[in-house]
TrEMBL record:
<dbReference type="Pfam" id="PF13561">
    <property type="entry name" value="adh_short_C2"/>
</dbReference>
<dbReference type="InterPro" id="IPR002347">
    <property type="entry name" value="SDR_fam"/>
</dbReference>
<dbReference type="InterPro" id="IPR050259">
    <property type="entry name" value="SDR"/>
</dbReference>
<dbReference type="InterPro" id="IPR036291">
    <property type="entry name" value="NAD(P)-bd_dom_sf"/>
</dbReference>
<protein>
    <submittedName>
        <fullName>3-hydroxybutyrate dehydrogenase</fullName>
        <ecNumber>1.1.1.30</ecNumber>
    </submittedName>
</protein>
<dbReference type="InterPro" id="IPR020904">
    <property type="entry name" value="Sc_DH/Rdtase_CS"/>
</dbReference>
<keyword id="KW-0560">Oxidoreductase</keyword>
<dbReference type="InterPro" id="IPR011294">
    <property type="entry name" value="3-OHbutyrate_DH"/>
</dbReference>
<comment type="similarity">
    <text>Belongs to the short-chain dehydrogenases/reductases (SDR) family.</text>
</comment>
<dbReference type="GO" id="GO:0003858">
    <property type="term" value="F:3-hydroxybutyrate dehydrogenase activity"/>
</dbReference>
Amino acid sequence: MLKGLNAIVTGSTSGIGLGIAHVLASKGTNLVITGFGDAAAIEAERVNLETKHNVKVVYSAADMSKPDEVKAMVELCVSSFGSIDILVNNAGIQFTADVQDFPDEKWHQVIAINLSGIFFAIKAALPHMQAKKFGRIINISSVHGLIGSTHKVAYVAAKHGVIGMSKVVALENAGSGITCNSICPGWVHTPLVQAQIEANAARDGISVEQATENLLIEKQPSKQFATPEQMGELAAFLASDAAAQMTGIALPVDGGWTAQ
Ligand code: NAD
């Protein structure tokens, strides 16, 4: 179904992005993977994706906060594979502080990576998708694109912005073969969330296990983490023909968090 399509998954050296990369590759999609980390580990994962799924995988070191690098990332996909069919904007960071204490540079950094980087990637990819009359843009927003939480002002603003941006992209391209949707995960157990759990444990003087349980109990009624693979399967569905008429929507995968 997705065999022979060409995709970028940003932030695919870790967590949700890595899970999405594996699911898309398992369905025959060639990949540009991106993100930071140890160079040897990234190369090993690139080779692992290629050999495990028998697809082509190239790595881009693009920093999502740098528009020129984001544009080059899109062009790398087109020059390597001939097209960009699927763009998964997943790379993101978190920073927590009360609004009045939130450092200006952290505000700018979160907005640059979690919001503006997605705009620049979509802007660069759209002309290629419009020429081919096919494209699937999948933005990893968050439950925090739909509702707020304390201490996450930049993240919540950026994630709401992603959903708004997705609606405009969807409307401008409706009926053209290009769709643009957002996935809104609740808690997924990744390094990004582990850092928050460990900070909570230190703040409250409790074990990491207890802090993990508390994190789920506080927000996620299922009391279970969603998984990177579940995000990957949803992304694959949104990229499929079955989802051709789904555009401009935001889909929670959150164990009931936003049902409350
Ligand atoms: P993660 O920290 O495991 O992975 C983040 C990825 O983004 C890594 O590959 C990292 O190298 C990359 N990255 C960070 N800054 C970058 C930059 N400037 N340029 C390029 N790449 C960069 O985090 P995760 O939990 O897998 O999160 C992935 C996405 O899912 C994020 O957008 C996050 O906001 C969103 N999300 C996560 C959860 C969750 O519970 N984990 C919930 C909702 C939404």
